[in-house]
């Protein structure tokens, strides 16, 4: 809800997620005009789990996943229909059951109506989460400050790298560009590279400075009264494992006494023979 207050209505936003149940429920309510695209990597993993059994070998599973990817990458509806027919013919009922709750406009290029600029996965978010792995478990203010320091360090390193690029993007491209200059049909390649170099330098020209008032608030601290957050701390240790996506294969707990699923030996009330 706070995110929706700062987003501009005239700029449609596309969310790429792993079909988490909370996002599937919240996005249509809070951001009804936003587009939602399902991460292809998670979908392929979910589909592969559907064929995890002794009756299916790795070659067949890889073939099904390849056909599913072809459907997702198909640029036109006609190409998509052709790939989809081949997928359903080979996958039979398992594939049809998997596709029953997957709207085409949520995972295919042919039917998607928003803008995602070629992105098919949520790898950007996964990479960022890995980059701030140590800071994620800190308190909010310390986490933000840690991320700010990492960004400052990254900007400084990239700025030094950009200063070293005096010719083109890398020395290995010089010979290629010299040959490109001899051909009038490839002049756009030279222009594109030169513009990219200038853009690359401009991205890291500015600096990220520390917050000047973080240690010196603008108001007198004596007049402020801080109360604990209005929330109840849940029992147990804070959760650190990722929340599984929808359709992800989850290991079920099996009781060692009655051998049933859903509980362990301690709360089991079954009597042994």
Folded structure, characterized:
The chain has 273 residues and is mostly helical. The protein has two domains: 1-137, no CATH class; 153-225, no CATH class. It is built from nine helices and two strands. The chain has helices at residues 2-6, 21-30, 40-50, 58-73, 77-99, 123-131, 140-164, 174-181, 187-203; strands at 14-17, 35-38. Strands 1-2 form a two-stranded parallel sheet. Helix 3 packs antiparallel against helix 4 and helix 4 (58-73) crosses helix 5 (77-99). The mean pLDDT is 80.
What would the keywords be for this entry?
273 residues, 2 domains, mainly alpha, extended, 9 helices
Percent range of helical residues = 40-55%
Gyration radius, in Å: 26 Å
Structural domain tally: 2
- What count of helical segments does DSSP give? 9
Order of helices and strands: HEHEHHHHHHH
Shape: extended
Number of strands: 2
Low-confidence stretches: none
Quick check: average pLDDT? 80
Give the end-to-end Cα distance, rounded to a whole number of Å: 55 Å
What percentage of amino acids are in beta strands?
under 5%
Strand order within the widest sheet?
1-2
What is the compact description of this entry?
This protein is mainly α. Helix content is 45%, strand content 3%.
């Amino acid at each position: 809800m706070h995110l929706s207050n700062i987003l501009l209505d005239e700029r449609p936003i596309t969310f790429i997620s792993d079909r988490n149940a909370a996002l599937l429920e919240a996005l249509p309510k809070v951001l009804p005009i936003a587009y939602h695209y399902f991460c292809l990597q998670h979908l392929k993993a979910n589909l592969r789990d559907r064929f995890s059994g002794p009756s299916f070998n790795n070659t067949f599973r890889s073939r099904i996943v390849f056909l599913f990817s072809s459907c997702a990458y198909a640029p036109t509806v006609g190409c998509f229909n052709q790939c989809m027919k081949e997928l359903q013919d080979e996958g039979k009922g398992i594939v049809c059951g998997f596709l029953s709750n997957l709207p085409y406009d949520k995972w295919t290029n042919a039917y998607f109506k928003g803008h995602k600029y070629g992105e098919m996965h949520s790898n950007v978010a996964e990479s960022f989460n890995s980059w701030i792995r140590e800071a994620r478990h800190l308190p909010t203010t310390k986490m933000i400050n840690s991320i700010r320091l990492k960004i400052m360090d990254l900007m400084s390193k990239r700025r030094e790298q950009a200063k070293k690029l005096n010719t083109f993007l890398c020395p290995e491209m010089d010979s290629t560009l010299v040959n490109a200059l001899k051909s009038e049909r490839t002049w756009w390649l030279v222009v594109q590279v030169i513009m990219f170099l200038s853009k690359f330098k401009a991205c890291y020209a500015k600096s990220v400075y520390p917050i000047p008032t973080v240690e010196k608030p603008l108001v007198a601290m004596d007049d402020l009264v801080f109360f604990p957050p209005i929330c109840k701390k849940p029992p147990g240790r804070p959760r650190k494992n990722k929340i599984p996506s929808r359709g992800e294969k989850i290991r079920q707990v099996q009781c060692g006494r009655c051998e049933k699923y859903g509980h362990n030996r301690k709360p089991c009330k079954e009597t042994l023979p």
